[in-house]
Amino acid sequence: MRYTFARAAVDHRFLTAVRIDAPQPLSRTVVAIWEDLTRPGGCRIHTFIPTMRAPKDIDRPQMFDCLPLTDISYLDLMRTICPSLIPKTCAEATSDESTRAASLGASTELTYRAADVTVTEFLVDDQSTPVARLVHRNDALERTWRVLEFGSEADHGMPVRLRVDRADVKKPTVFERVTPVIALTRHPGVEDAVPLLNEAHRQLFGTGAL
Q1: Given this model, what pLDDT does residue 32 score?
Q2: Where are the beta strands (DSSP E) in 37-128?
């Protein structure tokens, strides 16, 4: 799988945009996630798959699901947990995951609940950077996302390798960043995913058309 990933931030608002380039069945799939930490429920997920007749907004219960034909969930792509998921008393994570998170320097553990889903998140960097997320559905562990390797200081510590484990799949999926982290020369704002992706793609590869 290969994709272009870009993120813009203004104050406490984030836009994350992803374009999947390979494999062919998902080529030109675009996912955009807006997060507004200044207001409750300030999260919108918008996606377009070329086989769709029209783009689609992802409803709140579906934000915990994976993109079609992938092991990437919408939650994996978010910068923060959606503000409408109210923090509750932390549930105790499995000792294995706690150990792994501690080895990555996690200093904070938070648990969020919505309907039948519970998300446990481990944070570092003054409680701002997630290093692992556990998703339980109906109290059963469904999937785990965690950082395997962080990037250099020049890359702002952005992960180099991520791992996703799904309870129903024995083999894990590992994602690896193959380009350096770049700062965009033109800030496209947080209103439209297309300029953000095009600018990132232009600087990486010299082209920009979606």
Answers
A1: 92
A2: 43-48, 56-57, 87-88, 108-114, 117-124
